[in-house]
Write the C-alpha cells for this entry.
Amino acid sequence: MAVLSRAARPVSYFPVSPVMLFPEALGDFSVYLWQGGDFVLYTRSGQKFTLRHRQSLHSNGVNEVYVRSSEKAQYEQYIERNLGSILLDESLPIKLRSRVFYEASAVVMQDVFDNRLPTALRARHFERIAEIVKSSIKFLASDNTLSTVAPFISHDYKTYTHCMHVFIYSVAVFQTYGMSDTEIFECALGALLHDVGKAKIPRRILNKRGALTMSERAVIKEHPVHGVSMCAHLPMTQNTINCILFHHEKLDGTGYPAGLKGDNLPLPVRIISMADVYDALTTERPYAEAIPPYEALTLMRHDMRQALDMVVFKRFVAVLSGADMI
C-alpha cells in the first residue's frame, strides 16, 4: 500500500469505520492509517475516496481509519450529506447504521440547542433537521430497527437527546397507523422539534435540581408557544405546528397551553405526548431519577389514564414489546 506522506507532528485523531467512507463521495477531511507507530495520510481533504481505496483497505485487513479531531466538524457534515445512503445500504450491518443514525441526529440536535437560538430557528438548522427526518423514516420503519437503536438511547436527560428519543418512539408508532408518508414526515418533524422552544428557557430553570417554584413552572409552560413562534417563518404544515404547540395537552383538558380536551387532540399529538411522558420518566432528569420502563408504563396506565389516550397507550406498549425494550 503506498504511503502518501506522514503527519508532520503528533495531533489528536479519532477512529472511524472504513465502511463510513463512500466511493466517489468528496470529503473535506483527510483520512489516516495507523502504521508503524505513526499516523499515515491515506487520502487528502478534497480527494474522492474511491472504490479502489476501500478495496485496498479491505484486502489489507484494515478495520479502522482515522480523522484529525480538528476536522471532526467536516466529517460530521459528510456523514449528514450521505446519511440517507448509509441508512438504506443493507450491505452495512444494521447495528452500525443504527449508531450512525443516532450519532448524526445527536450532532444536529445538539447544535440547535447549544447555539441558544435567539428568536427564530435558523433556516439552515431547519433544513438539517428536515433532512434527518427524511433520511431516517424508512430506516426506522424496518424490522428490528427500534431494538438496534435502543442501546444508544441515553438515560441521562438532555433536551436534544430527549427530542430524538420522542422522535424515534413516535415514528415507530406512526408506522402502525394508516398514516400517509407525507403525514408521517410532517408529524415526525414536529416530534423532533417538539421541545425547540426550550432554547428560550433560561438554563438555570431547565437544569434546576429539585422542585420548581410556581413562577418557574409558568416559565417552563411557555416553551410550546415559544417553539411555534421560533418556527413561524419556516415552511411548516399545520400537522407539524400542532405537534409542537399541543404536545403537553391532555385528554382530560388539564394540559397546556390551550387546555384542549378529548377529540380536539389530533392522533399524532396523542402519540407524541405518550412518547414524551415515557422518555421523561425513563431518563435521569435534574429533578427526578429515572425509573425502569415497566414501572414507567405502570405509572402511566394507572395514574395518567385520564390524561393519556389508553388506546394509543396499548399500541405504544406493543411497539416497545416488539422491540424487546420492556
User: Anything to note?
Assistant: The chain has a mean pLDDT of 90.
